[in-house]
Fold Alpha-galactosidase.
Amino acid sequence: MSRRSLSRGRANMLHRGFRILLPLAILLRSTDAVDNGLALTPQMGWNTWNTFACNINEGTIIGAAKALKKLKLDEYGYHYVVMDDCWSLHERNATGYLQYDPAKFPKGIKRLADEIHAMGLGFGMYSSAGKMTCGRYPGSLHFEEKDADLFAEWGVDYLKYDNCFNEGQSGTPLISFERYERMSKALNKTGRPILYSMCNWGEDSPWDWAPTIANSWRMSGDIVNVFDRYDDRCPCEDYICRLPGHHCSIMNIINKAAPLGQKAHTGAWNDLDMLEVGNDNLDYEEQKLHFTIWAMVKSPLIMGHDIMHTSDQTLEILTNKDIIDLSQGKWGVGFRSYKRGKSQLWLQDSKDGSGDMVVAVINNGDQERGLMIDFADIFLDEWDRRKVEYQVTDLWTKEDLGLVKDELKVKVKPHGVFVGRLKFTGDPKMKPKTKKFHGGPDEL
Ligand code: GAL
């Protein structure tokens, strides 16, 4: 069981099947991102790492998939169950293929993937573009085609591809690009559509080169369940960063991500890392703020909490349909209008020509504050802006705030967010231009 090699006959059958399906998927896609037709909206799911780290096995993963189904999270869009690091043996087999750890996965990975598929979910796998994974298991550097073939044969739908032990093959965008492109090509060559989730922590500015080879790219070091804190393990405050590190707080990642939205588009997203919703140490307000901004900037929404013990409050946050809609619906990529002291204004344009908008104010200070959202910070032209009225709905309380013109006054709890959907009440042809409109995903 532990030593295996790819069965040529089956692989060829798979290739033939997907040779028909892949061009179809490519036709259906609306951009030239990674040529796999996937992640047309940011991917959603659950990943083992933040709760279980290396303590994973068949039971953990099937248990998580069953919990996801029982909570009906799949009906909200959470589709992929992603197995992170530490699933393999420490050696490849005699023919150079990766081997799953039979003590952790007695039935094997293919059976595991089959069971997840039978639940209607997608199965995610992990490897690293290095000699070893971060957990020091064999990585895929120089084994890209072999590993991609094996993953396709196992029925993998998603690959998270890390950056540890890359043997110095980083430091310029081109070197990193070529290393990650090899796996992109290998995945596409299998003929199986496999979502490609790059995890190189923002090194060498992946937002400049990943959109043509990957569905998403991490733009920062690893997240931690802390709202706002400087930490030497995550030394950068800015997206230009020589040492991405780990233990990056929610606000640290938000500040680094703010200018990067312009680089995302359909099928190609900035990944702000897995969600900390449902993990210790973040209060209710902080979790809502975190989830709101991740949705607005169209980061993948990959849960990382102990899903088998999901509290009602966690479920309430993760299943807020209006917030999920900011990620999956008609809205462009969110962008920041301003950061002033301890408050920030974030905006999202609708892409359906309606003139609707989403407006969010963050209060990352320690006191509750009354904040005034001045429409001058939203719209370019004063004359235009004076003529418009919006019907406002608070997307967390669901309260209808009535018709609003010129300004909107809101109270925001400490470390909290107000997010409102602004329904344009005028003639859509007359919709005013927002201040920093920058494209984002294709028009619907
Ligand atoms: C890190 C990665 C984490 C997790 C970990 C596994 O590099 O950013 O999300 O995958 O490796 O060892």
